[in-house]
Design goal:
This protein is of the alpha+beta class and 347 residues long. It has two domains: 186 residues, SET domain (Beta-clip-like, Beta Complex), CATH 2.170.270; 129 residues. Helices cover 41% and strands 13% of the residues. The two termini are 38 Å apart. Bound molecules: S-adenosylmethionine. The site of S-adenosylmethionine (SAM) has 20 residues, from strand 3, helix 4 and strand 8. InterPro entries: SET_dom, SET_dom_sf, SET_domain_protein. Pfam families: SET (PF00856).
């Protein structure tokens, strides 16, 4: 692993105590294999059924870099990457070089830089660094996950253990491709496709992008409404204290949040469904509808474990409060009445 920014950056990162700690162990029997899948190149496919919330893969980055490199005036960004990579072990170099480069090679974008641009996922640094600053990380198998506009896996990065991982957002069936979202999947089709074409150089042919015109237009209307609501929610709550009451968009009601939640579930937008469920809990409390608040809280816990994983400390806390182990809680949530717990979002 190498950190590319400046000499000072390399020194800071080399001194991190976490390098003396082993990385969290990945699943003992990886539940996926990487294989060719047509025009997309390689992809990740489930070897067996992967339950919601299970960790699919967990690994430290192969390469980690600041998105704005401080290079000398007489050096290009591409040359900087070349010299940094040359300092790595030959195994790491060949793992890096085997990754896909979907960028057109130009004077500015060498093959190595193209690999970073094609594969980079967002990471943050551990304290005392700014937790909101985003860095680029490139991983070996984790970067083989292709994009889908209704993905079944969630990428997250732990700054504390410096590990990236994928968890199953819903149960993934054996043979199914494991996918993540490269862009804001709540946006309508044209906007998503434009970002994917410009940034990643491909035309998305996922199921949602290939819907017939009437269904595509319904999907766009629903996604645009979900996106507008979530953007406003983010804006309102960006600067409020953690313990403060959340603020809701103007005119938001439990009925409206529940409608958007149903749409998000219909669109298989699990991450949006989680945020909308949390918002609906807040609105149910505001409207003194306690039975709905409890029903929605259970639904939110089910979504939380999908994103944070079945080993999430938050999920373990909820399970403990219910007098259950996390495994018992997960089984109960999965087997409970769908209306109560939210659909399993299986095909
Ligand atoms: C991070 S890589 C994903 C793994 C890659 N398929 C490989 O062979 O290593 C990203 C690149 O994979 C391809 N890709 C990912 N998702 C795709 C999709 N839904 N349709 C077509 N190509 C896709 C694009 O070339 C994209 O720039």
């Amino acid at each position: 692993m190498v950190y590319i920014d400046s000499l000072k950056g390399v020194q800071t990162v080399s001194a991190w105590p976490l390098w003396t700690q082993p990385a969290p162990p990945p699943p003992v029997h990886p539940p996926f294999k990487i294989r060719e899948c047509g025009d997309k190149g390689l992809g990740m496919f489930a070897l067996r059924r992967i339950p919601r919330g299970d960790v699919i893969v967990s690994q430290r980055p192969l390469l980690f870099s600041h998105p704005c490199l401080h290079v000398h005036a007489d050096q290009t960004v591409s040359a900087f990457y070349e010299s940094a990579l040359a300092g790595l072990s030959s195994d790491t170099q060949s793992a890096f070089n085997s990754l896909r480069n979907a960028q057109l090679e130009t004077e500015d974008v060498s093959r190595i830089r193209g690999i970073v641009l094609t594969n980079a996922l967002g990471t943050q640094l551990p304290p005392p660094h700014d937790p909101t600053a985003n860095y680029n990380a490139v991983f070996t198998s984790l970067c083989r996950a292709n994009h889908d506009c209704s993905p079944n896996a969630h990428y997250s990065f732990s700054a504390e253990t410096f590990t990236g991982r994928l968890t199953a957002l819903r149960a993934i069936q054996a043979g199914e491709e494991i996918t993540i979202g490269y862009t804001d999947i709540e946006f309508p089709r044209a906007q998503r496709r434009q970002v994917l074409a410009t940034k990643f150089n491909f035309d998305c042919g996922c199921e949602t992008c290939c819907l017939p015109p009437k269904k595509a237009s319904e999907s766009d209307t629903r996604r645009a409404a979900i996106a507008a609501f979530l953007i406003r929610l983010n804006e309102l709550n960006a600067d409020i204290a953690e313990e403060a009451e959340p603020l809701f968009p103007e005119g938001a009601t439990l009925a409206r949040a529940s409608e958007l939640l149903r749409w998000a579930e219909g669109e298989r937008l699990v991450e949006a469904a989680y945020k909308l469920t949390m918002t609906a809990v807040g609105l149910a409390l505001k409207e003194h509808n306690m039975s709905e608040a409890i029903r929605l809280t259970l639904r939110a816990i089910n979504y939380l474990r999908a994103e944070e994983g079945n080993d999430s400390p938050h999920f373990a806390w909820f399970a403990r409060e219910a007098g259950l182990s996390p495994e018992q809680m997960a089984t109960k949530l999965d087997s409970s009445d769908e209306e109560m717990m939210g659909p399993n979002l299986n095909a």
